[in-house]
Amino acid sequence: MVALVDRPSSVQAVVNITYPVEMNIDHPDYLSTRVLNYILGGGSSSRLFMNLREDKGYTYGAYSSLGSDRLIARFSASASVKQVAADSAVNEMIYEIRNMRDKGVTAEELEAAKANLAVLSVVP
Q1: Confidence check: pLDDT of 68 > 90
Q2: More confident: 40 or 10
Q3: Which fold has domain 12-122?
């Protein structure tokens, strides 16, 4: 489903790609999905952030999240982008999601994510 609200006077467009997933804290892939999400959109060194902000200059930030729930969870990738770059931002976000699915992650990305997530898990 695609929802589009045309607001020509807006200077920014909100892009949100969301998909329901089967995930809860007891799922065997729970921890690995946390690491993958961190690499994709969990911070200022993530693929989405580096592509949409640092490389393309479309936004101040682009992030993703993976929520867990007893019944259903959701994956979400989002950014508020320059209005004229909305279509390009959607393409780049989908590119990064597919690229991770098709090519996986690098050893450097994996080690950095694991180190950052370990630090985040001990901070009160």
Answers
A1: no
A2: 40
A3: Cytochrome Bc1 Complex; Chain A, domain 1 (3.30.830)
